[in-house]
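B., you asked whether I could sanity-check this one before it goes into the benchmark set. Here's the sequence:
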Amino acid sequence: MTSDLFGDEPNQTPQLPTGKPTAQPVRGAIPLAERIRPNLLSEVVGQAHLLGPGKPLTLLFEQQHVHSLILWGPPGVGKTTLARLLAGAADSQFIALSAVLSGVKEIRAAIEQASEYARTGKSTILFIDEIHRFNKSQQDALLPFVESGLVTFIGATTENPSFEVNSALLSRSQVYVLKSLDANDFTRLLVRAQAELGTEITVESDAFDALCSYADGDARRFLNLLEITLLQIKAQGLSSLSLPALKQIAPSQIRRFDKGGDAFYDQISALHKSVRGSDPDAALYWFCRMLDGGADPRYMARRIVRMAWEDIGLADPRAFTIANEAAQTYERLGSPEGELALAQCVLYLAIAAKSNAGYNAYKQAMAHVKQSSSMPVPMHLRNAPTNLMKELGHGNGYRYAHDEEAGHAAGESYWPDGMQAPQFYQPTDRGLEGKIAEKLNWLAQRNAEARQKK
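And here's what the prediction gave me:
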């Protein structure tokens, strides 16, 4: 394995040839995260599930053979670093593109460069960062060259490849899921950062915990914030970093949250399932996580109303009223006052009796209607607003339920003629639905008795 993984110059990110000399940045101006980027597999922090003994990526390094793959994980967990190290392990040329800045033109230039390498007997790894940013035609442009083996494709993405990478490219690539870094990983990064910065500043435990919280699993964020903080502490002549000092130096940080990405849908899913699972504390936690991350409270209000109808239903009809009133309260008060109404509604929904019987009944009825023919309305159920319609028999034989015993026309049929009556709605025994079930059983018994008498 060569020590130079990325090109002719150490630690230089390879670029496509332009014919012009590339200016090299002053080392002190390079961000700390880039300066301490691992050059060896042993220096990689985190991802023990992929890099431990006998783990998938470790085996690729040991075999010095790389297949096309996609690295899927949140920002700052080492996707680009691993791609570069894999290129070095396979002794391959490394061409890096960013899907944010590149298109088919850049892909063609990369393929031409890979062809030049192939003529000299060198293999090429084509790394595309944020591959989910490429549209279908741009992704399709890669396929012939991945298929032929001219390039080994490595993609990096923060989004679910199942949705963002087309099936043809996905079928030719193995997906590896990377995880956020934890406190132990950040401890290793802190030691390495101290050595690079030449400081021996003590980071107090509460300040370190706050740094980890700010970083939210992102090594780049952790190191960028750490560099700013330690250098300012050093400039002040202090020997330790305390939590009050960190709060003065560090600006307010936003939790990882993408209003249109996986984190968004994962968190709304967690909120919905916490409500469904009757865990009010967990439901409130995910609700606050989303608000803290920048979710639109109006979107949250819409989802809360949906939860009331989908997971509580007729087991507790008060849930609909509370959900609607919470949404209206938010519209009247706005943020942050209106968010309290939504939060308390989340608590109520979580502790309310649960039933999806109405939700299931609707889905089954809709499926039945779509699959069956348009059967005519029976004559006794048709409206008869004109004399002609009455003469044609519309409404004949209809029994007005209010005139019947118990307000129920026992034995009457409200289904199309000849249709076997399905049972869509099957209430649970929870909450009000228990009473509804008793009522339906009583009505069914009266119907059965009346039909036996006919």
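One thing to flag: The first strand starts at residue 69 and ends at 72. Otherwise nothing jumped out at me.
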